[in-house]
Amino acid sequence: MTVPHYGLMIADGSSRGPSKEVRSPFDGTLLATVQTADSAAVDQMLETAYRLLRNRAVWLPLTQRLEFPRRAATLMSDRAVELAMLVAREGGKPLMDARVEVARAIDGVLNCAELLRGARGHVIPMCLTAATQGRVAFTQSEPIGVVVAVSAFNHPLNLIVHQIGPAVAAGCPFIVKPATNTPLSCLTFMEILREAGLPDEWGQPVITATQEIAMRLVSDWRVGFFSFIGSGEIGWNLRSKLAPGARCALEHGGVAPVIVAADADLDAAIPKLAKGGFYHAGQVCVSVQRVFSHSSICRDVAVRLGEFANSLLVGDPTLAETDVGPLIRSSEVERGDEWVQEAVAGHAELIAGGRRLAIPSCYAPTVLLNPPEDCRISTQEVFGPVIAVYAYDRLEDAIERSNALPVAFQAAIFTRDYGTAMQAYSGLDASAVMINDHTAFRADWMPFAGLRASGLGVGGIPYTFRDMQVEKMFVGPTT
Fold this sequence. Notes:
- The protein has two domains: 272 residues, Aldehyde Dehydrogenase, Chain A, domain 1, CATH 3.40.605; 187 residues, Aldehyde Dehydrogenase, Chain A, domain 2 (3-Layer(aba) Sandwich), CATH 3.40.309.
- By secondary structure, it is α/β, with parallel strands linked by helices.
- The strands form five sheets. It has a seven-stranded mixed sheet with strand order 13-14-15-12-11-17-18, sandwiched between helices. Strands 8-7-6-9-10-20 form a six-stranded mixed sheet, sandwiched between helices. It has a three-stranded mixed sheet with strand order 1-3-2, with no helix packed on it.
- A hairpin with a 6-residue loop joins strand 2 and strand 3.
């Protein structure tokens, strides 16, 4: 079978770097080759985007910004089966979840079009003082500038939609760099956008030849807005490299806490906790990782989670029956296992998993009971299929332990008592607290924000759309 090759999708650019292989994280199968961009190509991309921004005569009219997403959504629907298989093959996400990602991505593209119907400025009151008599003032929105988006591997289609769909709607020329492990979903989506009518120069995807070249893409003075999804270490470093005046949004990870109260409905809670912890092999920025269970039910929670973990089918992500697929790299399997063994050596009780599988890219869904509070499983984002369960006696203690880390994102509590739910909501350091649901719940139009070390700004399609615009005020006479 001929392996497809994706060339540079740079408007009017001929310079290029070496080709790069894209392989399945599950079994190493060669999926495609992609052309990388060298330093000259990246500079050409930035110059093309900035030239468009500076020429207001060629800005995309509102009618086109409405139509491009609508047409793209139709084309995506026609190719939904292909897109889901692509997500599964290049990212290792089980097909059942890849199908959900594609459906969400299609809805997200439509959401970008819908935002334009409700987009509006506002009136600023005048005539309130002698100096403001006889004046009128109002605002309208304009694109903030050239958008550079750097994305992550774990949702290779939907994250791209979240980062560049709003740029299309806002009228920003953009450059998007997908994760080097999973570029194919992004490149395919860009092909679809161009088929839907988006001019080539308005949206340019790129895989850079080196990290140094990628850094130049981010730090260039022509960048108006930088969107990043990935690790905190990289995100905060990139933010420090931005040119003066550039705005940014950063979405990092967390070590998501869940509190399970003594009165929780465990029959309902266990499947949700398992889904939140083992979905996409735990490679989700708000994946369930720390479960604080009341001491009266703690062992029961751990054992039942372990039974659920043992029932999951781990393997080929392209098969419809697979529950848990591979980790993105074999080095991640090794790292995750090292963290688990460290916890066990520190007297955590291994309830389930805790081992590598015959398939080198996969790790057994793992449940630990009462690992040490200072081990890496308890303090850092594992980004693997591992759930740690801890006993607590007082709700205040569970909240305090949940808040003890420098990261804060989404959290959850399972309880039948409204007062307990409200106490947890009030006390937890989190941008969202889920009641009787797992921490990884998300609707694409809701705010999605990492606090403290977990990020900067608010994600979610409407919020990103707002951040990619500036309000421009008109002040003039009433006559």
